[in-house]
TrEMBL record:
InterPro entries: TNP-like_GBD. Residues 38-136 form the Transposable element P transposase-like GTP-binding insertion domain. This is Transposable element P transposase-like GTP-binding insertion domain-containing protein. It comes from the Eukaryota.
Amino acid sequence: MVSLLELGLVKHFFQNPYDDLRKIFVLSNTPHLFKCILRWRHYQVLYEKERKLPGNTNVCPKFIESHIGPCSFAKMRVSLMTQCISNQSNDYFVLVHVGLNIYRQRLTEELEDSEPTAMFSLYLNNLFDCFNRRYPGEGIKHSSPDIDKVPIILIDSWEMEVSKNMILPDNYLTKETAEGLRVTLQSMFAFIEYLYTVGFDFVLTSKANQDKIEVSD
């Protein structure tokens, strides 16, 4: 179904064949969608700069080769992706956006245009957090600012720039990733609103990820 979609023609649900009053929402596996996004030249340049420095002088000491050139097994590790885009400051996360900003301020030529990448990394972190709420205290409530259509508008406007030749296709997502994100965003917002109408006080969005379905009895 997803492969047949085009910009502005998103079909993110279908009717339950056994209950006309219910819809079945279509979602891609969010963590794996995000892993498909992070294949950027700026990340590779940052890694090459970092690995030439002594360990105690690195801006991103936790940035390792597996983050930009993972082996077949490592490609399945969602943690490598979340470590790159996270804005948390501790020993576990890489803080790539900080490294990009610092090297750009040092006038590193290959990273002079990296500010949008750093900003987009933080944007992805916030979006991923929205889709990965696990505990009641962080559940998405009806008044939550997480529920907005900005991510959908961003993807649509980004794709429109490609169609108008304002940016190169290589600077956009793959067709499959863009469509998967668009469908998942629409479905996520729609079923959150639906759950509110039937009495839910909050929604734990991580429960909609594919891994939760795979381990269910």
